[in-house]
Amino acid sequence: QVRLVESGGGLVQAGGSLRLSCAASGSIFSINAMRWYRQAPGKQRELVAAITSGGGTNYADSAKGRFTISRDNAKNTVYLQMNSLKTEDTAVYYCNADARISATTQSTFRYWGQGTQVTVSS
To answer: Does residue 102 have a pLDDT over 90?
Structure first.
């Protein structure tokens, strides 16, 4: 099985920065796309940023210019650098990854982490 573990969340003042990490472990042959989502209280989970295995990225409009997604393929880890944080960025942040677990199949499975809380105070 594949396990994703997020870290780096916490409490920060508006205008501050945080760096989230998400490490994948387990029976991994390769990982395609990796993503960060977030879910604020009473709201639907939304995509924040995504990155392909080749490094291509895309961002939600709310994240453009402030957040940067990156990955270390050797460590099966994805990062989210969040700068100029706003109170509306407060949410639980989740990562997911599309992973191949075998060299004998092209099938990928999507795995989720358990989430890390980010709280931005005014």
So the answer is: no
